[in-house]
Amino acid sequence: MTQPRPDEFKPPPECPVFEPSWEEFADPFAFINKIRPIAEKTGICKVRPPPGWQPPFACNVDRLHFTPRIQRLNELEAQTRIKLNFLDKIAKFWELQGCSLKIPHVERKILDLYQLNKNVADEGGFDIVCRDRRWTAIALKMGFAPGKAVGSHLRSHYERILYPYNLFQSGANLLFVQKPTLPLDTSDKEYKPHDLAERQQFVQPAESCCNSARRAKRMRAESGCVKIEPGTKPCENRPNLRRRMGSFVAKPETEKEIPILVKQEPIEPVSEADENKSRYKKKPSLDVPPPAVNVVDLYICLVCGSGSDEDRLLLCDGCDDSYHTFCLIPPLNDVPKGDWRCPKCLAQECSKPQEAFGFEQAYRDYSLRAFGEMADSFKSDYFNMPVHMVPTELVEKEFWRLVSTIEEDVTVEYGADIASKEFGSGFPIRNGRFKVSEKDEMYLKCGWNLNNMAMMDPSVLTHVTADICGMTLPWLYVGMCFSSFCWHIEDHWSYSINYLHWGEPKTWYGAPGFAAEQLEAVMKKLAPELFQIQPDLLHQLVTIMNPNTLMSHGVPIYRTNQCAGEFVITFPRAYHSGFNQGFNFAEAVNFCTVDWMALGRQCVDHYRLLHRYCVFSHDEMICQMASKANSLDVVLASAVQKDMKDMIREEQDLRDKVRKMGVKHCEQAEYNLLQDDERQCAKCRTTCYLSAITCPCSPGRLVCLHHIQDLCSCPLTNYTLNYRFTLDDLYPMMNAVKQRAEFYDEWASHVTETLEAKLDKKKSLSVFRSLINKSELKMFPDNDLLRQLRLVTQDAEKCSSVAQQLLNGKRQTRYRCGGGKTQSQLTVEELRSFVRQLYNLPCSLPQAPKLKELLNCIEDFQQHSEKLLADETTGTAEIQSLLDVSFDFDVELPELPLLRERLAQARWLEGVQQASTQRSTLTLETMRRLIDQGVGLTPHPSAEKAMARLQELLTVSEHWEDKTSSLLKARPPLSMEALSETAEKVAGIPAYLPNCLMLKDSISRAREWLQEAEALQDEDSIPLFYNLSDMVIRGQDIPVQLGPLKQLESLVAEVQAWKESAAKTFLMKNSHFTLLEVLCPRCEVEAGSPKRKSKKAKDITQHSKKKMVKLDCLSDVEKALSETKDSASALATLGEVRLQEMGALSSLRAANESKLLPTADCMGLKVCVCQNPPMGAMLQCELCRDAFHSVCVRASSDSRSAQAWLCPHCRRSEKPSLDKVLPLLASLQRIQVRLPEGDALHYLVERTVSWQQRARQVSSSCGLPDLEESFATPPSPDGKLTCLTPEWNRTTHDQMVFYTEQRCIPLQDLSVELEELMVEGLLLQVSLPEITQLYHVLLNGLRTHHTNERTSLQDDDPSDCDKLKQCNSQGKGFPQKDGLIKEGVNGAEKKAKRRLEREAVEPERRDKAKKLQNKRQKMNKEKNLERKAASTSSSHSDFSQSDDSEEEMCPAEGCQQPEGDEVDWVQCDGSCNQWFHQVCVGVTAELAEKEDYVCDNCTISDGR
Fold first, then answer.
1. 1188: which residues sit within 8 A by CB, 6+ positions away?
2. Which one in 150, 887, 981, 1189 has a CA-CA gap of 20 to 30 Å to 1049?
3. Could you tell me if 578 and 509 are in contact, meaning their C-beta atoms sit under 8 angstroms apart?
4. What angle do CA 66, 359, 539 make, to 5 degrees?
5. β-strand pairing of 411-419 with 69-72
6. Which residues contact 1064 (CB under 8 A, 6 or more apart)?
7. Helices 876-886, 847-870: inter-axial angle, 10-degree rounding
8. Band of the pLDDT at 263, cuts 50, 70, 90?
9. Residue 516 has what pLDDT?
10. pLDDT for 134-190, tens place per residue?
11. How far is CA 372 from CA 34, 425, 1425, in A?
12. What angle do CA 1346, 1350, 1353 make, to 5 degrees?
């Protein structure tokens, strides 16, 4: 047998086929309701009448004439139609340029241009495909065999045919597109456009049937005229049989090259007379009078603007624009013989929207006999065999092949939707023209007669007043081979029934109603182009899609072949389609049952959303039935009452909404007297019945209450609410139906609830009996519900009797003595089957739970027994418990003997299993103990297996435990490869082996160590000494050979040697300081924090705290240095510590200076390391400015040197020279290891070098003499200072309360910058000659000039003294001849200086210096106040004393003399430079800090 092709049609599964008996066939609606649960799952079903049911064919064959529809098969299928539409666009594009489209052949197949265009577009376009060379991939994707250079052919065909079209569609300029040079293949076949749009303009035959019919005109298109070319005859109605492309001889045409679009120049087109149109410019005829304007001037080329070469001027057949053939790009060698369009007309023609697709009406009117002759001739000629010998499977496959191909255009005709009212039905009817014989009179009133079915009492459509062709009146269908009906659902989602009177079969395809939305979604997904043109495509019955395609997307599809004499029924909302196998005659009609009612209202709401008109008014039908409430069937009355309740509720809500919107006019309207098209909503086309909205401005126009906003633009107050019934009229109608149905509805609801009850909601058997009795008393109709109730009750009574007998038998045998089997015992399977039957009953029986409980216990016992017997390590408790439970069952249980046999072995296996669950518990001792216990067990496979496993495990474990111990103790340690190999071997041993675990842990630690070492070597930054030391310590503890360990050990040793060398260089003998403590800036300086900081300094400190790491002690600094990634970060951290050191030391110096000033109680001071009052000879530290007892801090060997004296706290190291420090730094850099001491040394060197540069800059900027020259005279040989004079002692003693052996640099006349420079030089742990030189310059030079200037200033003008005091108060120093101290600055310079200080990099330092000066002033004021109180002498022998006495008073008028720990002052920025209390002049601290202050006197003076 040959294998089917991959694209060959595969028939879907068959739908259900029913063959009713004569009894079932007697009532069609009862039978349909019976099969509905099965048939509605497939959407369609087939019914074969009983044998002998053969109604006569009553249609008048001679009188029946009809005009069929023309169907071109490949235009029916959705995806094929998309391809044809695309080819028509391509053909039109080239036809307008004077060329005909010829589709090429590739590999002996017609090239699918649509698929080629789609694949190229999916790959990104022509340019990307060419660039990436994907043509071979596209050829493979299109199904061509590889290796035949098909890709190059596809590229040439695309570039020649499709590329210009795509460029045109994208709007790109085609000026530079080269003319194709590939010659046309002689095998290319000319494509004849389908002209789908033009063929929709057909002449609609006059309607002669059903003048009052309101059937939906599903297959009609807009009427129009048929386009007939001049000189041609109307086409004949003969179908084209097997008209495949290439099978007919086309009219030969001259092969033309494809013209290219021309650029449009901005030249205004010249109008021409229609009568002068010509392809070339013609001279005016002699019979026509010459026009006023020269005709030659009207024809000019729009490209070059010239009218020359008139014989080469080419006129557009659309707009008469002129172009030279040689001006076109590329130029045309020949003149196109067909119509030619310029680029502008081409764009207009191709941009026209595509019209909706519809069937054409044939031009020929057929009789039934003539149509049959044509149909039989077509089929026999097509298949080349007699029509009755063609298999249906062959016709089906050929049909789906034809609708899916564009290569073959097969046209058929279909006589569909022929009204039976005009020509007569195929079934006999009463008072019809067909005379019925006596034996056939039964068919006149038969329910299966389609003329009767729609209007029988069970059908809801009997209450629709008008005759509807196709719904209440049957339609006739005359088919031929391949004529088809497309996918659709019936109007109002109703049922339909189709009967095939005679002829060849009709093939059906259907989808169930629940899959309707899924089918619609799949078709919209696969053919979006068609739905863009026709959104309501599925309502037009003009489109089919291959069932295999739908099934591949998950849509359930079923099929059947309807033969003559068979019915096909479609269910609500079930999509169906199909085709005819040959000439046949069928008849169809719609009907609606009670179960359709809810779907009918849902369909109307669906139509409203789609703006689709209704065939009839659902509300009108409901009201019509409600008006006949007394004659309605109780079942139908119940359904009407439910539907009417929903209808009234919705209508009431809509009317209330309309009234709230402002509609006040109401008027009753008799809508039942109007035709449906006269009362359709103007928006949604719904047929209005209960109410509508109208406006006087639009007579005859109305809308439903859902679309009141779409009526017109008038105010809502102008609208009128037209109603058929008031709500007061509707409620009585509903109550009448309700009264008719309430008894039955209540009973039916109770029955339905009882039958559908689940679990604990099931009713007892007595309730079922009472329901049956009630139905007999009320004489309810004998319908399916009552029959089901009776059947269920009978089954329940039988089951109850059997269950009671079983329970009685068990009760008798439960206490029977002996364990043997009795005759009353049941098998487990019998008991299970019966219990299942009990619980499947809709009612609840009291015996069911007891039997279920017994069965559950037995099943649990069997399941547990089977599980335990299959498990070789079952616990003893479970087996014993099962044996105990089995004594309660009076059932034969074959599991009991096996359970007893397993009880003995289970105990030992349980012990083994418990020990083996965790590796930590399965030690060597445990295994030896279990083996000893298992020796005495009875032989059993499970026990023997467990014994063998334990013995083997014990032997292996002992061997590897000993071997692992020897490996770990090996010296030197073994390599990791050797140890890893051993560890892999012991990893699978499921026992607790301590030595093996230790080996595994050692290997893991060694791998981690090696990874760290490798990462340390791969790092770009220099490693930290802390990490190296830690790795060496951890590596020495690992019993594994580690390659990099020796290298790291040597590196650590070098670092340790460097640290020892650095310690010898810096640390003093018996020093308690560490090397890092000496090298780092001091982070722990004992100083009292100032009581108040400036606002700006406080903000900066808070801001820095948020971003900086806490560096309060040496451990914090060491931790911060260890966490830095590089030296730059470490230097930045040390820079922060330096700032803290300078700030803290500044505060400390200020506190000590204040402490040493004369006070009332001198003995209350705490000085020196002993913290005692000053006495005897004292020493003052040059750095911290604290006083020390000479006997406490000076050793016997110490002598006065030329260096500044530092206290034990401030002198921290030997302070080696820079020449000794630099080699240490160089040696550390060679080691390439980072450690905190190294970073600190690096920073110390950089700080030293930076200080040297600053010292030189300050020396030059401040006018200091060269530091080297100033120290040219060395100190005296005895080591004592040459500048210790009695004058100095006297002067110093005036400012202190004790005697100092060695004087310090006076701070009163020293600038902040010089003081800060000297302090930082003393902090350096490196000795520099510049430090000593600067110290002596400040000490000696300042003292000499200070004495001279003080004498001269006393004799000068008092204003000079004021200036001098101002300079001192600002920290500037006295003006000197040798430039040691800066001269005073004017007011503008001072203001600029103050701004620079605010914006300085170190605002904290300047704030602290200012605080120190303020504090000094306060202390001086206190001292002078005490002296003034003691003596009234006005001696001015001391300049500083007079200075302080003048500054103690605030010059402001009405000084408030503020008191307290802290008094804020402000200095005038005018000409006087006097100091004022801030509170006395009304200036806040913030204002004084930000803005300049000028006193009243300076303001008046400057104003003058």
1. 1167, 1168, 1169, 1178, 1179, 1180, 1181, 1207
2. 981
3. yes
4. 110
5. antiparallel
6. none
7. 150
8. very low
9. 92
10. 888 888 888 888 877 888 888 888 888 888 888 777 765 443 333 333 344 545 666
11. 38, 18, 142
12. 135
Q: Are 1085 and 1148 in contact (CB under 8 A)?
A: yes
pLDDT at 293 over 80: no
| 284-298, 481-495, 715-729, 1460-1474: range with lowest mean pLDDT | 284-298
Among the residues of 1037-1080, which ranges form H helices?
Answer: 1044-1066, 1075-1079
pLDDT at residue number 344: 67
Residues forming a β-bridge with 703: 693
- Let me know if 390 is exposed, middle or buried by CB neighbors in 10 A (0-12, 13-18, 19+): buried
Residue 1502, exposed/middle/buried by CB under 10 A (0-12, 13-18, 19+)?
Answer: exposed
Gyration radius (Cα) of the chain, Å: 58
Q: What is the rounded CA–CA span in Å between residue 1412 and residue 1421?
A: 14
CB 1051, CB 1233: distance < 8 Å: yes
Q: Are 741 and 641 in contact (CB under 8 A)?
A: yes
Residue type, 518: Q
Check residue 205 and give its pLDDT: 38
Residue 695: other Cβ atoms inside 10 A: 18
For residue 1378, the tally of other CB atoms under 10 A from its CB is 12
**Backbone angle region of 1070, left / alpha / beta, with phi > 0 → left and psi within -120 to 50 → alpha:** left
Portion of the chain with pLDDT greater than 70, in percent: 75
pLDDT at 879 over 90: no
Average pLDDT value for the chain:
75
State how far the alpha carbon of 695 is from the alpha carbons of 657, 700, 721, 1385, 1396, in Å. 17, 9, 9, 96, 85
The answer to which of 599-603, 654-658, 1009-1013 has the lowest mean pLDDT is 1009-1013
pLDDT in tens, 1021-1056: 788 777 788 888 888 888 888 888 888 888 888 888
- Determine contact, residues 902/878, Cβ cutoff 8 Å: no
What is the distance, to the nearest Å, from the Cα of residue 964 to the centroid of all Cα atoms in its chain?
Answer: 56
How many CB atoms within 10 Å of residue 1014? 11
Task: Map residue 442 onto helix, strand or coil.
Answer: helix
Distant-in-sequence, close-in-space partners of 1148: CB < 8 Å, separation ≥ 6: 1085, 1086, 1087, 1088, 1184, 1185, 1186
| 402 contacts 73 by C-beta, under 8 angstroms | yes
Strand partners, 723: 668, 691
**What is the per-residue pLDDT across 1432-1458, written as a single tens digit (0 to 9) for each?**
333 333 333 333 433 457 888 778 777
Amino acid identity, position 26: A
Q: Are 858 and 829 in contact (CB under 8 A)?
A: no
Q: Beta strands of 987-1042 (E only): which ranges?
A: none
Distance CA 150, CA 158 (A): 12
| Structure confidence at residue 513 as a pLDDT band (50, 70, 90) | very high
Joined tokens for residue 1209: 């706290």
Strands 366-367 and 17-18: unpaired
Phi, psi (5° rounding) for residue 478? -115, 115
The one-letter amino acid code at 733 reads M
* pLDDT single digits (tens) 576-613: 999 999 999 999 999 999 889 999 999 999 999 888 88
Measured distance CA(1159)–CA(1167) in Å, rounded: 14
What is the average per-residue pLDDT within 5-18? 88
Q: How many CB atoms lie within 10 A of CB 998?
A: 14
pLDDT for position 1374: 31
Return the amino acid letter for 951: Q
User: From CA 1189, how far away is CA 1193, in angstroms rounded?
Assistant: 6
Give the β-pairing of 691-694 and 576-580: unpaired
Tell me the DSSP string of 331-386: PPSS--SS----HHHHHHHHTSPPPPP-PEEPSS-EEHHHHHHHHHHHHHHHHTS-
Residues 6+ apart with CB under 8 A from 399: 73, 482, 484, 507, 579
